[in-house]
Amino acid sequence: MTTVFAFLLTIAILIVVHEWGHYRMARACGVKVLRFSVGFGKVLWRRQRTPDSTEFVVCALPFGGYVRMLDEREGVVPPALADQAFNRKPLRSRALIVAAGPAANLILAIVLYAAAGWIGTDEPKALLGAPAAGSLAERAGMRAGDWVRAVQEPGGEPVEIRSYHDLRWYVTDATVHGRDLALQLTDAHGQRPREVVLPLGILGSREVDATLMQKIGLGQPYSAPVLGRVLPGGPAERAGLRSGDRVLSIDGEPVADAASLRQRIRASVDREGARPLTLRVDRAGQVVTLRVEPALIEEQGQRIARIEAEVGQPVEFVKVSYGPLEGVAYGMRRTWEVSALTLRMLGKMLIGEASVKNLSGPLTIADFAGQSVQLGLSYYLGFLALVSVSLGVLNLLPLPVLDGGHLMYYLFEGVTGRPISDVWLDRLQRGGVAIMLVMMSLALYNDVARLLGLH
After folding, report:
1. PDZ domain spans which residues (predicted)?
2. 160 is a catalytic site residue
């Protein structure tokens, strides 16, 4: 229920802001607005102060909205109101009215990002878990427990990394741009600084998808290989393991972090069953060697071993927040970065250099909306800002039926001195609808594939 409510709230806010941009600019340009609608279909709520004022309605289908303006191309306009018709306005005014919707979404994103920054969020510290064997991260010299303090692209300035989320963002951005990324590292205590170069330029933007971090070798943030609650009667308790034990090695091989410890335990299976493991643990400063016989279970059709104990300390979190002016600067910078990344990814998908699996539809949006609401207000504001940027950028694409398509019509009119003919306008609109249907179908397919674990 929370997911549905969060999704509907997200859609409602973005639609209202988008259409409000069109509405306010139309009023400012002297155009009479007949109806302001949130949604399509059957009218559920209606308000109109006077018969001559704008009618505000909420309709049954919430996936969109529109502002209906007085226009001689859509019906008879009384001579007394002809100067308030949209089609009678100068080209500049019509372009401003069309562009105001996407602009409102981008301005909203700035405000939302700034507000999220002012409130602050608890985010994982940029401490690295053990990189996957043979991965880019491991070959670059990154190790479990490294603390990423800053990143730098070739020819750019160092950028401070405040959290693990920051790191993921800059790694993704560098991969999309095909650039290597220099990382300034220290140990977990901020000592022994060094620099490594992550060669992201060899990947290419086609590799940017939900598994990008695993491909690079950056998994979860660092978690110490310390045991938590030990289940009564389980293999760990029978072996003498206790809560708080820090695992140093398994069968003589050092353990880097909790993720590698879990993986080693799960993989201790042969044809005969679960293999016994020899663990060296640090218990309050004393090293103890214990022999554990894991239990063998089946999980999703695979045989895995378990010791029936919680493995790993909680990930370390840091508070990330911004001051008043710093928050506004952050909102503007993040809106610009997300807009640029969205456009670049769309362009690369169009020419086949990026996977179309990156397209997301309503199911993914609903899922993330529900998750962000449960995490807290600042997380939801950040999510809402992200979707607002996406909506603003998408609507500026030069596709018929979108605001960007109408702006292309006006560009043609400005260059040639005449509007596009009705015949070509009809053809372009039909083509635009077809393209949008293909994109929506592909996005919905990706949503379902993600839910089924196919992506």
Report:
1. 226-285
2. no
